[in-house]
Amino acid sequence: MNSKDVTGVILCGGKSQRMGFDKALIHFKGHYVLEETAMSLKKIFPNVLLVTDHKRKFPAQLLANHVFLEDEFMQKGPLGALVTALRHIDTPYLFLVACDIPSITVTKIRCLLESVEDEQVILFSGEKLETLFAFYHRSCLSQFEKQLATDNGKIRTAFDCLDVKKVKKKNIDIVNINYPEELIYWRQND
What we know:
This protein has 190 residues and is an alpha/beta fold.
């Protein structure tokens, strides 16, 4: 698949309850981690969207440099944000990544991109499925909308009804930062 057929999407509207502050605003080495993620996506994909609960929480500089969408389903978690993004893309696929996955590299994304054929969902699997570092086809929208109506916010629940390709992770770490201790560890080791 050609990267021009993909819109990069960053989820940056979660509750961040475990962290104690908004993870979308994590700052490291003089800039927002979110901005570093966006710049990595822009090296691959022609369009990048940031889906958030409230645009007003971001500084003017971030708002000026990136395209933000407000989540149409703020209380529905990542599934609601995914549905919002799927409703607004013009490309066949989107690549979804959460803002709390730092150290996103072009290499990691390309490794997964090279596995895309004609499936509806393409994601890494290992100890768990990486639903927030994955490709989703626009045709998934109706299934995710049905699931949204059931109040089951788990993205993977819809996988039984979709064509899903699970790619084994080989020497690729996808690290989520959910707790202050994890953030401290990541900052010390990055």
